[in-house]
Every structure is written in C-alpha cells, then in structure tokens.
Design a protein that fits this description.
Number of strands: 9
Number of domains: 2
Number of helices: 2
Radius of gyration: 19 Å
Oligomer: single chain
CATH topology of the largest domain: Chitinase A, domain 3
Order of helices and strands: EEEHEEEEEEH
Bound molecules: zinc ion
Length: 163
C-alpha cells in the first residue's frame, strides 16, 4: 500500500531546526498517526510522503513557505494589560489562544512585560524556520468514514474518538 489521500499513516519523526536542535520527536513514544490529505501536517512534508511505503525513511528540509509561513512583523505588538482580563502573573514565554482578525484561533506568545503593556508575538513559534524532518513510515491503512468526516485519525482500530 502506498501513501495517498484518505490514508492514515503512522510515522516516527524527528524535527530539527537549522542549528541542529531537536524541536520535536516521536522517538521514545508511539509513532504519530496523521490523515494524509487532511491538512494534519505541513504541506511540504505531506507532499514528499505521497506514494511512499511502509519502511521508507525520508529526510527532507521544508522551507517556511511550505511549513508555518514567514514571520509577519505586524503580528508582534504591544497590547494593553487589560486585554488579558483576569489572568494574573503574566510571564514571558506564556502562550495564550486568541481570535485572529479572520476569526481563526491563533496562539500568541508573551515576549516581554513592558511598563505600558505586554509585548506579544502572534506568529506561529515555527514561523520563518526551515524544518528538517527525519521520518520513518511505520504503518499505512485506509481511513474510516468517521476519520474522514472528522479530518483526523483515531486511535487503535479507528473506533474511538471523543468528539
Ligand atoms: Zn475524531
């Protein structure tokens, strides 16, 4: 079986940045499942996995344009402390979910506490970064109707989901 749309693929992966720092890895845990063609993983990785088979080992560098996009300077801004409502003890590095201009959920990261407000960054933490993936394909199966409807894989035999 080759990887194509509507397949659930389980893979081991290690993601490193251009400095060789590991950003994320599935090694030491179960392989990560995703729904191919379901927008579950970055486009640049999904593209190279198409037509691969179980056992394939793939190394690929994905440019920001095919990953989390470039850093948008306008997304870095100082906002009033009031905007955080009841949240107290805000520290640099904390992350919050907020609604973006188009109503989509975005994660904002606190960069700095300033006198007149809080400097936040609404860019994805991996925006502007080249992502180096080291991937091993462990399993490929057809997605169930429910998985296709939900747009993501379910655990085990495809039976359980909490949504
Ligand atoms: Zn589901």
């Amino acid at each position: 079986m080759k990887i194509a749309d509507k397949c659930v693929v389980s893979m081991h992966y290690t993601l490193t940045d251009d400095d060789g720092q590991t950003i994320d890895t599935s090694r030491g845990n179960d392989p990560m499942p995703y729904l191919h063609g379901g927008n579950n993983i970055v486009p640049g990785l999904e593209k190279v996995l198409t037509d691969q088979e179980v056992g394939a080992a793939i190394t690929v560098s994905v440019q920001p344009e095919e990953a989390y996009g470039p850093v948008i300077p306008e997304a870095i801004a100082t906002i009033p402390k009031d905007a955080f409502g009841e949240i107290e003890d805000i520290q640099p590095g904390m992350q919050f979910q907020a609604n973006g201009p188009d109503g989509q959920v975005q994660v904002i990261t606190v960069k700095e506490i300033q006198e007149d407000g809080i400097l936040v960054d609404g860019n994805h933490p991996l925006a502007g970064k080249v992502l180096n993936f080291d991937v091993e394909i462990m399993d490929i199966r057809e997605a169930t109707a429910e998985e296709l409807e939900h747009g993501h894989p379910h655990m085990g035999d495809g039976g359980s989901c909490e949504h």
